[in-house]
């Protein structure tokens, strides 16, 4: 019993030592490299592409970002930092290239979506733009 407790304490110390710095790093400002920010959306805008982006987002993103993209999905309560509110000025003020890069790269709890074809990721960017508060 005593030995088990000791090893648990040791395991906890290791976890804090390893995860502490990782979490801290994941909470700083998240910025795309300049060259990524400058990339323009190669997919022409339009109602079709917004609908396609919405469909992909409904499939993959609602659990965290919520049905309306407000960052209030069912899994959001357990996450820190919180999933981004796509309708917010913070997200809407970013360039298409930056949003595309973040979707592609991911960070912490935010998965990388590199496995989705590029055109689908750019379609999601169009959809996110359509959510800008009016
Ligand atoms: C498992 C939960 C989860 C899923 C699923 C998820 N996200 Fe996220 N997302 C996050 C979290 C958490 C953050 C904040 C990350 C940070 O700031 O370190 C985030 C951040 C973002 C950002 C960055 C916003 C900004 O400007 O900083 C974008 C864009 C985004 N997500 C888009 C998506 C898209 C599109 C999908 C689906 C294809 C998706 N996310 C799926 C959790 C998730």
Report a brief summary of the structure:
With about 130 residues, the chain is mainly α.
Provide key terms for this protein.
binds heme C; 134 residues; 54% helix; mainly alpha; elongated; Cytochrome Bc1 Complex, Chain D, domain 2; single chain
Tally of DSSP helical segments: 7
The biggest sheet amounts to:
none
What is the number of strand segments? 0
What is the string of helix and strand elements?
HHHHHHH
Looking at the structure, the CATH topology of the largest domain is Cytochrome Bc1 Complex, Chain D, domain 2
CATH architecture grouping of the largest domain: Orthogonal Bundle
Q: What proportion of the residues form beta strands (DSSP E)?
A: under 5%
Low-confidence stretches: 16-22
> What is the C-level CATH assignment of the largest domain?
Mainly Alpha
Corresponding CATH superfamily of the largest domain: Cytochrome c-like domain
Total individual domains: 2
Bound small molecules, by name, code or SMILES, are: heme C
Helical fraction: 40-55%
């Amino acid at each position: 019993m005593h030995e088990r407790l000791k090893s648990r304490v040791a395991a906890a110390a290791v976890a804090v030592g390893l995860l502490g710095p990782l979490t801290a790093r994941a909470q700083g400002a998240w910025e795309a490299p300049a060259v990524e920010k400058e990339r323009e959306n190669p997919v022409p805008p339009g109602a079709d592409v917004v609908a396609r982006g919405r469909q992909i987002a409904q499939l993959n993103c609602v659990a965290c970002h919520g049905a309306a993209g407000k960052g209030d999905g069912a899994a959001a309560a357990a996450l820190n930092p919180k999933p981004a509110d796509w309708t917010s000025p913070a997200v809407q003020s970013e360039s298409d290239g930056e949003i595309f890069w973040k979707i592609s790269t991911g960070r912490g709890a935010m998965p990388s979506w590199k496995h989705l074809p590029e055109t689908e990721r750019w379609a999601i960017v169009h959809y996110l733009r359509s959510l800008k508060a009016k």
